[in-house]
Amino acid sequence: MKSVLEGVKVLSFAQVISATSGTRILADLGAEVIKVEPLHGDVMRRITPFKTDRRGIDQAGYFIALSVGKKGIALNLKSEEGLKIAERLALEWADVVVENFSPAVMKGFGLNYESLSAKKPELIYASLSGYGQTGPESARRAYDICIQSESGLTIMNGEENRRPHRIGYSVTDYCAGRDIVIGILGSLRLRDKTGEGQYVDVAMFDCGISLTENAIPRWSMRGEIPRAVGSHHPAASPHNLYKTSDGFVNIIVIDDRLWARLANAMEMPELVDDPDLGKARDRLKHVERIDGIVEDWTSNHTTAEVVAKLQENGLPYGVLHDIKAVIENEQTIAREMAPEIDQTELGKMRVHGNPIKLSATEVKVRGPAPLLGEHNREVICGILGYSEEDYAALFEKGVIGTDEK
Fold first, then answer.
1. N or C: which end of the chain has fewer CB within 10 A?
2. How is domain 9-211+330-396 classified at the CATH fold level?
């Protein structure tokens, strides 16, 4: 079966999480992705969890999950020969170049958009950085935890009236990775029509702001500064995670119709006519009372019993799952969201699947993550036409490398 990005060639200098997660999506969609790493490898190769492979080398699960389906070369960009190889791949092979260094780094290598597009105007070049290529903060380095705080996410996360805390995973990294994919896909569409490439500039900071839901309108319209409210929601009640006798269940009511259904599920029809609770706006003034009523009910039933009552009354719900339960969930299996791969020298393992499903084309994990420098020869000799003697000389001079002991 064909893929939507079949034939698209992506040269990725991306490291760590953000842009690397984006190029993983491009690979799943069928693009051929060559990942360029320094001789010591992407830093994610040194981030837990680890498992020792058949060669006695530790492979990192985080790196694997981000890099399945890609080809990999290890290249010394600080050498003249290494830069020449990178430039040739960009100009002679790639449709798209992706990088996530601090602004000006690629300019120092002569591999920035201006330098490459002057020779290849059809090239699409995508940069992902902490604060973008413009503005007073553009030169700053960034990590997800910093971006979450500065974009307004952290102040809204955590328990009410307690210290705010980071959302429990690198949300702005992954959001930015998806946004750079959107920019690349739009640019490919334009190039199909005009023949011209363009520059894609994505900032984690911008992505964080885009995730603040209705915070900007709340400030603009009413002068409100959103704060952490736990699992509550400023526009709906009940909206929380409630304890059952053997677990936890989310219950969410966004309008009076659903409130009546919940009252029926709890066998408390009097709640519908309660002057303080009958209307959605009034319920927001009595959140603690509502939480008490709901949890008194849920805590006296098992999770399965609560779910059955919610289903019977057509109410949305969410059961609290750990990752083992997620992987084993029938819906996860049906949607192929934790596929098994055969990682080179390591064996069977699972990674996250791709949430994009298409009717006529294939989206899937297309193979294992590359070992460090695994595809050096295929790329340098096969694509660029270097001889075996030239390849051996590059290896001896430290222009290319592998993780082989």
1. C
2. Rossmann fold (3.40.50)
Q: Give catalytic residue positions.
A: 233
19-62 pLDDT per residue, tens: 999 999 999 999 999 999 999 999 999 999 999 999 999 999 99
Query: How far, in Å, CA of 272 to CA of 68, rounded?
Result: 52
Confidence of residue 405 (pLDDT cuts 50, 70, 90): low
How many beta carbons lie within 10 A of that of residue 268, not counting itself? 14
Q: What's the rounded Cα separation, in Å, for the pair 184 and 239?
A: 37
Nearest to 402 by CA among 383, 379, 382, 374: 374
Q: Which fold has domain 239-243+248-319?
A: formyl-coa transferase, domain 3 (3.30.1540)
Average pLDDT, the chain: 96
C-alpha span between 98 and 322 (Å, rounded): 34
Residue 359: other Cβ atoms inside 10 A: 4
Residue-wise pLDDT tens digits, 270-313 = 999 999 999 999 999 999 999 999 999 999 999 999 999 999 99
Q: Please state, as a whole number, how many other Cβ atoms lie within 10 Å of the Cβ of residue 192.
A: 8
In the chain, what is the straight-line distance between the N-terminal and C-terminal CA atoms, in Å? 39
Q: Is the pLDDT of residue 330 over 80?
A: yes
Does the pTM surpass 0.90? The reply is: yes
| Secondary structure in 3-state letters for the chain | CCCCCCCCEEEECCCCCHHHHHHHHHHHCCCEEEEEECCCCCHHHHCCCEEECCCCCEEEHHHHHHHCCCEEEEECCCCHHHHHHHHHHHHHHCCEEEECCCCCHHHHHCCCHHHHHHHCCCCEEEEEECCCCCCCCCCCCCCHHHHHHHCCCHHHCCCCCCCCCCCCCCHHHHHHHHHHHHHHHHHHHHHHHHCCCCEEEEEHHHHHHHCCCCHHHHHHHHCCCCCCCCCCECCECCEEEEECCCCEEEEECCCHHHHHHHHHHCCCHHHHHCCCCCCHHHHCCCHHHHHHHHHHHHCCCCHHHHHHHHHHCCCCEEECCCHHHHHHCHHHHHCCCCCEEEECCCEEEECCCCCCCCCCCCCCCCCCCCCCCCCHHHHHHHHCCCCHHHHHHHHHCCCECCCCC
Is it true that 9-211+330-396 and 239-243+248-319 share their CATH fold?
no
